[in-house]
Amino acid sequence: MLAYLYGHGRITVKIAAETIDMSDATARKLLRRLVDKQVLSWHGNSGRDPKQYYTIKHH
């Protein structure tokens, strides 16, 4: 997922799931953990926002 992010700048749950060949729920959990660890930033209006995505957090 991180390699994809470095190459593309942003990632969605759907793309993350396809990248790691896991379910959307698993990908979402992994992305949220990276947000909690302040590796990624989440962008969206709500948890159900269809346009939500993640980017690498720049410190």
TrEMBL record:
It comes from the Bacteria. Residues 1-40 form the HTH deoR-type domain. The keyword Transcription regulation applies. Pfam families: HTH_DeoR. SUPFAM superfamilies: Winged helix' DNA-binding domain. Keywords: Transcription, Transcription regulation. This is DeoR family transcriptional regulator. The lineage of its organism: Bacteria, Bacillati, Bacillota, Clostridia, Eubacteriales.
